[in-house]
UniProtKB/TrEMBL annotation:
InterPro entries from the UniProt entry: Baseplate-like_2-layer_sand (IPR023399), YqbQ/XkdQ (IPR056937)
Superkingdom of source: Bacteria
Matches recorded under Gene3D superfamilies: Baseplate protein-like domain - beta roll fold, Baseplate protein-like domains, Baseplate protein-like domains - 2 layer sandwich fold
Protein name per UniProt: YqbQ/XkdQ domain-containing protein
A Pfam family recorded for this sequence: YQBQ
Species this protein is from: Paenibacillus agilis
Boundaries of every YqbQ/XkdQ domain copy: 22-316
Length: 327
């Protein structure tokens, strides 16, 4: 691994030898990838170089194959009085879309055009985007730029045959949008080699198997249900109001929620396991899950310390995207 610091003036410096720990992580819901690292520092020790990195400056992380893994901006730094390390937290440029609100009206525009309009307004470079060919119209008032982009791709997903799912991602400083689960990690996880531990959970705490749709007067208009879920787990009901110009069955079905299944894995990492990141699929062979197959990575944390690489994965049993709805 190599960590490069780039100052506002354009000066670059390799700080890898000063770094004691690196954590590179991401989740589906938080969108922006995060880099946390600690750097040895002492103004009193002449043998220890002092690097004055400031909030807002750039750091770039490269893998052992010299491929760029992360490019982002320092958002936090901290140090204790007695400590010899300064801790930093940086985010890739998606953070600016998450923290900036926009008010725009979109009419008969493709998702890629919407993305380019938003990013031009915020000064975020744009890379490769899928060709959606779906005209979209919606109003986005006072919400984040990220939400507007995900509203657009949620609409594209719902209007496209096969229901493709999408994930925004930064690639060498440019915003790209990729297909969820399109990439399958090279290595297979196995308890016989690299899988240190794993867990599995299933719950019905959020289940909704009956939806009552009421009209403006509070009278029952229609009912949507999943009979199989209701018979097996008991009636778990929600009530929603009928919306004008929206199909009642579609409104009700959207509220149904089944059993939630999640898994996690602790993995011994390696140079060929950098591709185990949020939005990718992994192959896993473990009897705990009662199956050998593909799992979707909903969250990942890669830690590099003392020459060791460890990975914590949050796994889902199906591909996902961070769906958002226009209001």
């Amino acid at each position: 691994m190599k960590l490069i610091y780039k100052s506002r003036s354009g000066h670059t410096e390799d700080i890898t030898s000063l770094v004691t720990r690196i954590t590179w992580s991401g989740t589906l819901s938080e969108a922006a990838r995060k880099l946390e690292f600690s750097v040895l520092t002492s103004k009193m020790d002449r043998n220890l170089p002092y690097v004055a990195m400031e909030v807002g400056e750039v750091v770039i992380l490269y893998g052992d194959d010299k491929q760029e893994l992360f490019q982002g901006y320092i958002f936090r730094k901290g140090k204790t009085l007695s400590g010899l390390e300064v801790s930093y937290s940086a985010y890739d440029r998606l953070i600016y879309l998450l923290k900036s609100s926009v008010s725009m009206k979109f009419k008969d525009l493709q998702a890629e055009k919407i993305v380019k309009m938003i990013c031009a307004d915020l000064g975020v470079p744009v890379g490769k985007l899928p060709d959606s060919k779906v005209p979209l119209s919606f109003i986005h008032m006072g919400k984040t730029a990220y939400e507007a982009i995900m509203v657009a791709y949620t609409l594209v997903s719902k209007k496209t045959k096969g229901r493709p799912l999408f994930i925004p991602r930064m690639d060498k400083g440019k915003l790209t949008v990729v297909a969820s689960g399109e990439v399958v990690a090279k290595r297979t996880l196995s308890s016989a080699s690299n899988l240190l531990d794993a867990s599995y959970d299933e719950d019905i705490e959020s289940m909704i198997n009956v939806v009552r749709v009421i009209d403006q007067d509070g009278k029952l208009f229609d009912t949507v249900e999943n009979k199989g879920w209701k018979d097996r787990y008991g009636k778990l009901q929600a009530t929603v109001q009928k919306e004008d110009k929206k199909d009642v069955k579609t409104t009700g079905t959207a509220q149904l929620m089944g059993m939630q299944r999640t898994a996690s894995a602790q993995v011994q990492g390696g140079p060929d396991m950098i591709d185990m990141i949020t939005g990718h699929m992994i192959k896993m062979n473990h009897g705990l899950f009662g199956r050998t197959g593909l799992f979707f990575v909903g969250g990942d944390t890669h830690t590099f310390e003392n020459g060791q690489h460890s990975i914590q994965l949050d796994l889902q049993f199906q591909k996902m995207m961070d769906e958002r709805v226009a209001e």
